[in-house]
Amino acid sequence: QVRLEESGGGLVQAGGSLRLSCTASGRPTSVLTMGWFRRAPGKERELVASITSYTSSLYYTDSVKGRFYISRDNARNSVYLQMNSLRPEDTAVYYCAAKGRGIVDWEYWGQGTQITVSS
Predict the structure, then answer these.
(1) Of the four, 18, 47, 68, 102, which is 20 to 30 A from 113 by CA?
(2) Residues 6+ apart with CB under 8 A from 4
């Protein structure tokens, strides 16, 4: 079993930056594919960014490319999402998620943290 704990959410003005952190316990992040999802009001949950286990291949949804950056620190068993040039449309609850190598569905989820971007 993997437990994920997020931190770093909050209120920020448009154009500002925030960094989300997610710390895992139960399994090392080095063997997990880690991702950040978000769910905005009235919208479906979407995968924002992910980083695979072992190869650390990166994925970003189009709307955040060039603004958001995902990284991992296996020594701290953590993954981060650096969010720059935030826009009001980035307002959502952000979730950290993880899955094992070769697993299709995301297996583990954090509790979520609110990001609100004011215009």
Answers:
(1) 102
(2) 22, 23, 24, 96, 97, 98, 108, 109, 110
Q: Provide the β-strand partners of residue 106.
A: none
Which residues, including other chains, have CB under 8 Å from residue 100's CB and lie 6 or more apart? Answer: 27, 31, 32, 33, 53, 107
- Mean pLDDT, the chain, integer: 96
Report whether pLDDT(5) > 90.
yes
What is the DSSP-derived secondary structure letter of residue 31?
Answer: G
Please choose, from the candidates 93, 95, 83, 77, the residue with its C-alpha nearest in 3D space to the C-alpha of residue 35.
95
Residue 12 CA to residue 77 CA, distance in Å, equals 27
